Amino acid sequence: MEPFNSYLNFNRGEILSNCNIVVRHLSDMEGMYYDLEATQKIINEDDRVIYKVYNIDVPEKYGHLQHCTSIIYPGRVGDEFHMTKGHFHAQEDTAEIYLVLQGTGKLLMQKKDTEVKILDMQSGSISYIPPYWAHRTINTGNKPLIFFAVYPGEAGHNYGIIESKGFCKLIIDKDGQIKVIDNPNY
Ligand code: M6P
Ligand code: ZN
Asked: pTM of the entire structure?
């Protein structure tokens, strides 16, 4: 394989070459926000885009490094802030790094024994997600949250556990304050 450059628009988070783009509407995340009524209402109205991921094409193999940008648009579903689905790595002993370019948010992480860690995300923050921690990103601000991620080629995504149980904590807007609460459905 030959070396190559890609180009990132720092303001918009878009990568213009060598890329595949994942667009996640709310309907792609049904059941992941705890307010099911609010979810259904939004899906029926405009099924808004919650986030996009610009993935640079690299072989999903040991020795390579996957890298991408994610853009989480600001907003809430009910009182829960816009967020990614969240995942464990299919190859669980693989780590990941997030570098925030713009916006503010939280990085919610959880191990299988339900130990939880939440880190702040803001422009310039570099978060290290060690092996074995599931990770979800939440936009708690009123601008897009844009971050760059790098992880091992073979890591893969395991969504199953999160799709069925979610995380044990939720991050919500309570009267204009960012609050971490227990997930009533966990
Ligand atoms: C980050 C990385 C990607 C991931 C994306 C969206 O950019 O962790 O691997 O795909 O966030 O998160 P999710 O896949 O959980 O929807
Ligand atoms: Zn990951």
From this structure: 0.97
